[in-house]
Amino acid sequence: MTKERYISACFRTWLHCETCIFMELNAPTEKREILITTMQCAEACFSLMFELTCRPARVPDAAKYCCTVCETCIALCEDETAPQLQKLTAACRHCLQVLRELTIPFSLN
C-alpha cells in the first residue's frame, strides 16, 4: 500500500475529528468526553501524517497510537445519533483498516 493511502485515511479522519470538535464546542451542552477524545484522535491522525511525510522511522509507534485512539473514538461515538459522529466513527474504522498494515508487522516482533 502506498504512503498516500495512509495519509489520505488519516487526513479524512482528522477532518471529521475537527468537524466534531467544532460541533461540540458550539453545542449548548457539550459532551466533554467526546470533545477530549476527538481532540486526541485529531492530534494522533495529524501526528501520523507528519511522521509519514517527515520521519518514517517513527511511523510504527505513531501508527499504533493512532489505532488505539481511533478504537477509543469508535467505542465512544458509535452509539451517538449525530450524523457528524457517525461519519467520524466510519472514518475511524476505515483508518484502522488501512493502518493495520503499518502496525501488524511491528506487533509480531
The residue fraction in helices comes out at: over 70%
Number of strands: 0
Overall mean confidence score, pLDDT: 91
- Which residues sit in consecutive blocks of at least 5 with pLDDT less than 50? none
Main structural class: mainly alpha
Number of helices: 4
> Which series of helices and strands comes N to C?
HHHH
Taking the sheet with the most strands, its summary is: none
Radius of gyration of CA atoms, rounded to a whole number: 14 Å
Distance between the termini: 21 Å
Overall body shape: elongated
β-sheet strand percentage = under 5%
Folded structure, characterized:
The structure is a single chain. By secondary structure, the protein is an all-alpha fold. It is built from 4 helices and no strands. The chain has helices spanning 3-25, 32-54, 59-77, 83-107. α1 runs antiparallel to α4. The model has no long low-confidence stretch (mean pLDDT 91).
Strand-helix topology:
Blueprint: H1 3-25, H2 32-54, H3 59-77, H4 83-107
Summarize the entry for a quick read.
The model has no long low-confidence stretch (mean pLDDT 91). The chain has helices spanning 3-25, 32-54, 59-77, 83-107. Helix 1 packs antiparallel against helix 2 (32-54) and helix 1 packs antiparallel against helix 4 (83-107).
